[in-house]
UniProtKB/TrEMBL annotation:
Keywords: Iron, Iron-sulfur, Metal-binding, S-adenosyl-L-methionine. The keyword Metal-binding applies. CDD domains: Radical_SAM. Coiled coil: none annotated. It comes from Actinomadura graeca. InterPro entries: Aldolase_TIM, rSAM, rSAM_sf, Sulphatase_maturase_rSAM. This is Radical SAM protein. It comes from the Bacteria. It holds the Pfam family Radical_SAM. Residues 12-241 form the Radical SAM core domain. PANTHER family: ANAEROBIC SULFATASE-MATURATING ENZYME HOMOLOG ASLB-RELATED (PTHR43273), RADICAL SAM DOMAIN PROTEIN (PTHR43273:SF8).
Length: 401
């Protein structure tokens, strides 16, 4: 595996997604939250919500960068904390200001918001609809499952409020288009069919099952290697029978990579589109899922007031989450499925002793899952000589798992 030099990497990988933290606080208290419940507590020093001047400064930096990179399109996602805490009016102003800035340099804007779904009032829905903002909702499955961890500040489950918000969304849009998809944690204590069928019944177009945010120092001692992989395999088999009903991003991305696709996303693939995050105080950061590792891990030391995005994009910290070879352990670089796995989510590689230079805590799970999907793909594609499953050394590898 060749490790690209930084200049080569930067040239080929402009920032394609800007995640803007418009609120640093949340109205929920989910037990597993990587922002509030894990190592990095820097949210405490952030303003509660972004102000107008910072929004304008961000819009200027994004437009300047789009022009410098001749970008035809940029994805801009409002994130938090809970982004709807800034209120429908200010959120609408945020999206309008950002789109206007990018419009002036001929860059199309794809807008999104990632929300816990509990504050989707009709006013908020209408404002998001009028600006064509795609809405991603975090929900862990049926109420009994979701409400175990996704609770409010009093420990009360939040499914009811999310489902009310979803009804308003449906009422206003009358179809799926604005609903970008669901993010759900893979919970191996729940039968996969329960989680999968719930999202189908909900009419979801897409769901992603995220691996719980553990690293080598925090993985529960009772966790048995391969348990999550086996759970995901069961889910995959069920999904294959129902795949015309919704997309499960984890599986479609793995299949695409096995068939020779280049780009994955944060969780899978050796390469993914580069992302930059901006906190409410205007400071630039790397992907916030790294916050499960240690205090200050995402900080670049640069901000929208003094620095252009082109100065930040070349930092190894930013590159590490999109070109995984930049930061992967030697064992991963030599792994036959590195192009599909990418060493997993960077946050899952961390240990205090070795930093991010380790295999994922879910290494065995990923190997099991990828091997299973590969075998299934081969079976499904038998008699299709025009299609090649691309991990050529996989058969040698599969004996070692
Ligand atoms: S399967 Fe394991 S060794 Fe291979 S790339 Fe992924 S984390 Fe690294």
């Amino acid at each position: 595996m060749n490790i690209p030099s930084r200049s080569e990497f930067d040239q080929n990988h402009p920032v394609r997604t800007a995640v803007i933290k418009v609120a640093s606080r949340c109205n929920l208290a989910c037990t597993y939250c990587y922002i509030y419940e894990m190592a990095d507590q820097s949210w405490r020093r952030q303003p509660q919500v972004i102000d107008t001047t910072t929004i304008e400064a961000i819009a200027k930096r994004l437009a300047e960068y789009a022009q410098y990179r001749s970008l035809s399109a940029l994805i801009v996602v409002a994130h938090g904390g809970e982004p709807l805490l800034i209120g429908p009016e200010r959120l609408a102003h945020f999206f309008t200001t950002i789109s206007h800035g990018l419009d002036t340099v001929g860059c199309e804007t794809h807008l999104g918001v990632q929300t816990n779904g509990t504050l989707l009032s009709m006013e908020a829905v209408q404002k998001l609809k009028s600006r064509k903002v795609h809405i991603g909702i975090s929900l862990d499955g049926p109420p009994k499952v979701n409400d175990e961890h996704r609770v409010d500040k009093h420990g009360i489950g939040t499914s009811g409020a999310v489902l009310d918000g979803l009804s308003r969304l449906r009422e206003a849009t009358n179809s799926r288009p604005l609903l970008g998809g669901f993010l759900s944690y893979a919970d191996i204590s729940v039968p996969p069919i329960v989680q999968l069928d719930y999202f189908i019944e909900l009419g979801a177009a897409q769901v992603d099952f995220l691996f719980p945010n553990f690293n080598h120092d925090t993985l529960p001692k009772e966790y048995r290697n391969g348990a999550l992989g086996r759970w995901m395999i069961q889910l995959f088999n069920l999904w294959m029978d129902r795949s015309n009903q919704l997309e499960v991003r984890t599986f479609t991305v793995i299949m695409r990579l096995l068939l020779g696709g280049k780009f994955g996303y944060e969780s899978f693939g050796a390469e993914s589109q580069k992302t930059i995050a901006v906190e409410p105080d205007g400071t630039y950061h790397a992907s916030d899922v790294l916050k499960s590792a240690y205090e200050g891990v995402t900080s670049t030391g640069m901000d929208v007031w003094h620095h252009e995005i082109r100065e930040v994009e070349s930092m190894p910290l930013i590159a590490a989450t999109s070109s995984k070879a930049v930061s992967a352990a030697n064992e991963c670089l030599a792994c036959p499925i590195f192009s599909v796995c990418g060493g997993g989510l960077v946050a899952h590689r961390y240990s205090k002793a070795q930093g991010f230079n380790r295999v994922s805590v879910y290494c065995e799970d990923i190997k099991l899952l990828v091997r299973h999907i590969m075998d299934r793909l081969k079976k499904e594609l038998m008699g299709r000589p025009d299609v090649t499953v691309s991990v050529s050394s996989f058969s040698a590898y599969s004996h070692r798992v």
